[in-house]
Amino acid sequence: MAVHVQPALLVAVALAGCAAYDPVGCHAEKGGAACMADDEEVQLLQKGSRQQELAAAGGVRRSGWDRGPMGQYLQELEDVGKQNPMDKVESCNLEDPADAGCPFDQMQGPTMVFPGGKTRCIFGDSPAFRFKVTPGDSTKLLLNFQGGGACLTKNTTTPFLNTMCIPDPFDFDVAGVFNRTTPENPYKNWTVLDVFYCSGDMFIGNMTRNYTDNDEPVVQHGYWNAKSAVDWAVEQFPELDSLAVTGSSAGCGGVMFWADYIFKQFEGRVSHKAAICDSLMGFVPEGLLEDVLEEVGQEALCTLPIWPEAIREACYAGQVPLEKLLPEVMAAHPDTAVVAIHGKADPVCLHFYNVLASDRNQGNWTEEQFVMRTNQRLSEWNAHPNFASYLVNDDFHTFLPMPILSTTDTSGIEGTTTNRTLCDTNSSVKCAVSETMCAGNQCCPGVQGLLAGKTFPCPSAQEGFAGCEANLKPTDCLEPPTTLFEWLADLPLHPGSKVTSRCGGTLKVREDWELPGAGTRYCAAGQAGKVFARAA
Fold it and tell me: How would DSSP label each residue in 472-518?
C-alpha cells in the first residue's frame, strides 16, 4: 500500500507484479503442483536469508510475497505497518481488571485494545491480536475491517511456499478515510475502530485446520477477533448518529459477513448507517469453500450467530454462498445504503482467484472474463433498491485506505489531474449506447438494458431538466466526474439524501459486454445512473 509512493507508481508496482509472476501461463501449461515445484529450489534458497532479514527487522516468518500482485499488495501493507510502530500507541487489556473494560470516554488518543480470550492470529508465534480505537466524535463510528489476503487452503497458508495472508497485526490503515488531516475527508472527525486482520479467514474463522505450522495446528479465530471488537463497540456506544461499516479487500469480506449482525446490534440506537465494501466481489473457485466447510465441520461455522437465516440454512446444506451475503444485508435493512467500490480488472483479486483455481486444477480467468463476471455479480446486487456502486476505470486494488481519494474519479486514480474536454449547454453530442445525436434539453431514445428502456436526458442537457421518461443522465458532459471522496461524503444517507451509482467508460448493454472481445474499460449500462434515495 506504501502511502509514500505516488499514485501512478502504485499502479506500476501492481502491473509489474503481473508481469513478474504469471499464474495463468505457468499453471495453465503444467498445473499448480508442477509450477510450485519449479520454484522450490529458489524458495529454499530464499528461506534462510529472508528469515534472518525479517528476524533482524523485528518481523516473523514470511513467504512468497514476491509472487505476483497479491504478494506486492501484502508486502506494501506490511511496509506501511512497520512505519507505524504499535508500541508507540497507548494500550489497554480487556482481561486486566485494572483497565476496567477499556472505557472509550477515558481514551486520550489512539489506543490498542487487547481482548484476550479466544482471540488470536493464525500462527502460534504471531503476536497477540488487538484492535485499534482512534477517538473522535463519539456519535459517529467508522467500524473498519482491515484487509490483508486470505489463507483458505494449505497451499495458501504454508510458510515459505505461498502464504497469501498477513499473519501478524499491523497498523497500516493511516491514509484515505483514516487520514484526519485531509480537509475533504468526510470521516476525518469520526471515531474509528479498526479491526486488525491476522487470521487469514475474512473474519469468520472458528476452526482448527487439518494442517500444521511448525508442528502446531493452524488455528483461525477471525470470528472471535471481530466479535471482541463488535462487542466492545456495542457496549461503549449506547447511541450513535452515524455508523459506517467498512472494509477493503479481505476486510470487505468482513463487511459481507458482519454488517447485518452489527446493524441489528445497534437497532434503535443509530440514526444513519451504511455498509461500504471496497475491492472484493467474493469470487472463489467452485467447491473451495464447501471443501473448507467439510474439513472443519458445520459445528464450527454454521452455528455462528452472525448468519442470516437463509445463509445458515445454506451452510447446513453444505454451501457457502458468498454472493448472497450483501443482498441479505440489503434486504434486512432497506433504508440503509449498501455500496461497492471496485477497480476494473483488479490485478490482486484476479491473481488471487487464479492462484486458488490453479491449485484446484480449474481454469484461470483473463482480465476480460474477470470484468465480465464482476458486472454479472453487480447486476445481481443492483436488483436491490438500496445498492449502489462506484467503479473506477483503472487496474487498482483497494481505495478506502489509500492516499488517492481526492484525485480518484470514475476515469481513474488520477482522474482529477487529467485534462478532459467538457461540453457546453446545448452542445450537439452523442446519446449513450444508441449514439443518436442530441443537443441540450432533449431526450435520448430509450435502450433496452439502460434505465428500463425509458428515454433520458441528453448529456448536454441542463441540470434539473425533467422532460424525459427517466430524468437521470447516465452520461454528463457538462461536469467532470464526481470524485470518490465527494461520493463517499453522502454516506451514510440522511433522510431525503441519495447516492448514485457511478462508473467510467463507454456504456454497453449486457448483450454486448457479455460477448468475447468486449474489453475491460466499458461501463455496464444497467448500473449507470442507478439512484437510491432514502425516504425523507
Answer: --SS-SSSPPPPHHHHHTT-SPPTT-EEE-EE-S-EE-HHHHTSTT-
Asked if 275 and 339 count as a contact pair (C-beta separation under 8 A), the reply is: yes
Which has the higher per-residue pLDDT, 467 or 529? 467
Which has the closest alpha carbon to 411: 388, 430, 390, 394? 394
pLDDT, tens digit, 9 for 90 and up, residues 453-491: 999 999 999 988 999 999 888 999 998 999 999 999 999
Residues 6+ apart with CB under 8 A from 228: 94, 115, 117, 119, 129, 131
- Give the Cα separation of 397 and 248 in Å (integer): 9
Q: How far apart are CA 459 and CA 415, in angstroms?
A: 19
Cα–Cα–Cα angle for 146, 413, 402, rounded to 5 degrees: 25
Question: How much is the pTM?
Answer: 0.87
Q: For the chain, how big is the Rg over CA atoms in Å?
A: 23
Averaging pLDDT over each range in 52-61, 81-90, 310-319, which range is the top one? 310-319
Q: How many residues does the chain have?
A: 536
Please answer whether residues 439 and 429 qualify as being in contact, where contact means their C-beta atoms are separated by less than 8 angstroms.
yes
Beta strands at 456-457 and 443-444: parallel, antiparallel or unpaired: antiparallel
